Amino acid sequence: MIYRYISRQVFIGFLIAIAVLLPLFSFFDLLDQLEDVGRGTYRVSDAFLYTTMLLPRRFIQIAPFVALIGTVTALGKLAIHSELIAMRVAGLSPWRISIAPLSVGILLLLGVAILEQFVAPQLQQKAITYRAIALEQSAELGGNLGIWTRNENNILRIGRIIHNTKAADIEILQLDQEDFLAAHVLAQFAEIVDGETWELSNVIVRTFKDNQILAVRHNTLSWSSFVSPDDIATLTKPPESLSPLELFRHVEFLRSTGQDADSFALALWRKIGSALMTIAMLLLSIPFVFGSIRSGLSNKLVLASLIGIAVYLLDQIIANTGLILQLNPALVALVPGFTMIILAHVWLNRTQ
């Protein structure tokens, strides 16, 4: 009965935290989008729709904050009414009391996992596409450098993705068995007929052989692509907008073709690291509340919020630094969460 009571209070605390944090973060998203109102066909209603479609992604991002603030709110309320003291007198240790918040936290992580795989990526990608169309933008990466990918014998550059089945400003560098440039194909447009065939238009093919360059023009030219439409779509999306399964498949594709996969691998591991950080925030909040509550619950919440923001910023700094220094993505993503869990474990043991 006691565990059920604590779990119910923690669940209510989570709901309060969500009710406060999710609208707050969404409001910041909306302010950011309102700056683009008036460009192309982008209207206020589009900004609201875009922000709404990002709600599942924002919920996933604030999950560690929800765990921290929600648990501090729930246990702080119990401490103010001396219920925690009564539980300690009844023989419940902080570790045993922590079982209830952890069980609710597991439910939170389960909800996050479902959203992460089946809801948030799809809505976020639709939001990105919807916004790009309204702003009359086309998808591209690397500034004006376009999208680059390769396999063993071809290097492909796509200047712009106009829509799912049409690309513009195409370059194909074909290599021979000794990795020397054998041919260069430049096309103005490419219609993606199916997963393997592209119909190139306004094409110039330059072949390099015996110290000579032979240029031939074609109105149209069929090309057997090594990149599937799904792979192209993945290349134009931010790594954090992909589901764990999409990230795993794309990392395998990049590595199998000899390309740099660090940013996508880091995004994949950070999804796991976020779950660890949520558990860490839960454990951290318990000894946090078992300290003196004389300063008031509001002060505890402010301090907990500052700690959460500091941990979040530190995690971002570590991730970006690791990417720049080309450190192991798994190590960069998981170390902050494991470190916080160890610190929370030590702190919780000291409250016994």
TrEMBL record:
Principal subcellular localisation of the protein: membrane
Domain of life: Bacteria
Keyword Ligase: no
Subcellular location: Cell membrane
Transmembrane segments: 12-31, 59-80, 92-115, 272-290, 302-324, 330-348
GO biological process, one term: lipopolysaccharide transport
Name of this protein: LPS export ABC transporter permease LptG
Organism: Nitrosomonas supralitoralis
Gene name, Swiss-Prot/TrEMBL: lptG
